[in-house]
Fold:
Amino acid sequence: MNLLRLFRRRRATYATDPFVRVQGPAAPRPEPATSARREPPERVRARAERRLKFTAACFVAGFAVVGLKMGTIAASDAQEPRTGSRAGAAIVNDRADITDRAGRVLATNVDARALYAQPHLMVDPVAAAHGLAAIFPDMDADTWEKRFTSDRKFFWIKGNISPEQQQAVFDLGEPGLLFGEREMRVYPNGPVMAHVLGGARYGAQDVRAAEIMGVAGVEAVFDDYLSDPTHEGAPLRLSLDLSVQTTVERVLAAGMKLTDAKGAAAIIMDVHTGEIVSIASLPDFDPNERPRPAIEGDPGDNPLFNRAVQGVYELGSTFKIFAAAQSLELGLTNANTMIDTSPLRVNRFPIRDFHDYGKQLSVTDVIVQSSNRGTARMALAIGATRQRAFLESLGFFEPSPVELTEAPGARPITPSRWPDITTATVSYGHGLSASPLHLATAYASLLNGGTRVVPTLLAREVPPAQGSRIVSDRVSAGARQMLRQVVTRGTASLAEVEGYQVAGKTGTADKPSPTGGYYEDKVITTFAGVFPAQDPEYVIVVTLDEPEIFAAGENRRTAGWTAVPVAAEVIRRIAPLMGMRPDFGAEAETLGAYLTQAALR
Amino acid sequence: MRAVLYAASIVALVGLAYWAYDQGYETRATEREVAKLERRIGALHQEMSMLRAEWAYLNRPDRLHALAEMNFERLGLMALTPAHYALAEQVGYPPLAPPPPPEAPSAADWADVELGDEVDGVIIMNHVYGANAAPRVITPPTLAGDGEQLP
Structure:
């Protein structure tokens, strides 16, 4: 019964809706608890309050921790994870090394010290000034005494001092003389490759470190790459070869001395990839102490001037092969077509030859004997438009794309108008001035089988895609054969190097005088060629500025007596260094067989 | 029961706190160690780059050229020319090991041979010295004790 009541009670309905009357018997309200069983409301309230406070405190503490952490993060300096806390360690990789193609170091960094002064820390500024003047002869004691006693609080004194000098400054015992950490860019090989490397100087500097900035050459062009820490100090690998470069510079210097020339340049370039294995310009300088650019005088005589890239010269008869190759390519002639070499006047200007070559010569002989009239007649048959387009395809109308700061400034000087006389003179290399590098690129493009190459100073990891076609393979081989005969029986006979089948062309151009016209007795001689002729691997261009040599009974200035022997000696010395095995019997079979086969096609 | 639970959780708390602090100290010690190692690595890097620069400086072509010239009498180094290329056959390899000498026929083998008998062997009669001696081959390179070829 009791249980039943309990159930009924449970089922007793409570008002769920205040507006609806509860049906059924009204449940007896639970007996109100007696005051003894119930807690007093103050205590309940106090407990609830305590709990609320506790929860609030928890929240406040939680937010406070988060807030404090945020505050510390915001207030403290951001810090990158770094290798070693020594300032030097991070800076070692600050600027990457430059190496040659075999990994030999061409430019690297070493530790150095900079000296600065804080006069307000000095004990005896006068003694310090005199002491420094004794250590560094170029410092004037009185000037520095004045500076040290002035109000200024900071002076840079020396950017770079040797350890001995540092010790001497230490020995002065002056607390106001302080040393800053430095990295110094060094070029261990001295003047070798000076023009390519350029040089570096300090940019923004601080007492803890200084930024190194490239001034010229690859140092300037690849400044971003070299100072980019994401490369993790991976060196910049150039296409140049240190031993080849040294040899070229040595031989060139000797040739320059022998021929009494005032400057010389040489380029060795891979015919297929356009990689420059060696590029030399004399006189040169030491990039460790790069001289200041000269204010007066001819900038072309300054050692900083890179003759191979910046020197824009009329390159003379070396251009003749372009006219001959184009003539062959267009099908106007073949190697044996007879060309009229009788006296010729174009636009009333006579075209002169070094000798009179008689009435006519074959195309090969025009190149071998270097006849201006013959080349001019071939060029006139080609026509100005096509000649221009051909030279443009070889890159003679734009600055060389090589990675040097000087290159974009060295735009070839091309005629603005192109009348017949220009067609004639350009065909034998007058009226159009270009740098030896342009010539090397053009020779490589023409003679490597006839595809355009782009010169580069970086070692290529993968061979580049074949460039656009300039001439057919067959014309390229034909041009090589003509150039080969220039060496075997023509003007470049001194270029013969046993085993390497040099093929090339000489060029002797009168130097233009700054007052207008040409010098009578000053020339620029050039030899441009490839070797070996039957399977070309390298292009060589050697240029001498104002050479003269007493040989075979008279003073001679032509390229055949000046640039050619130098080029031959260069090839004789560098070809073995580049791992080329001399081949004493290849020529006859390979080139002959190729030409026979080509003729049958 | 409750007391045991409390005791256990306090012990666990202390244990965990000890463990956490221990981990913290260990981490800090490791960090210090790493920093020390990195400092050493940095210093070694610096030293290495210095040594590389020095190596490049000492091996600069000008200096090597001068040294080769100074020591020409001793070393005989000269510039590489096309003439220095040769065929593999021209290289003076050490001679092959001589074949083992044929067993010399001892006197006992011939003891029972009568004069006039047919023999199927060869009697080596070697007169090395004297005017009739065949010319000795003099070209084979002499080898030093360690196998190096002497001029």
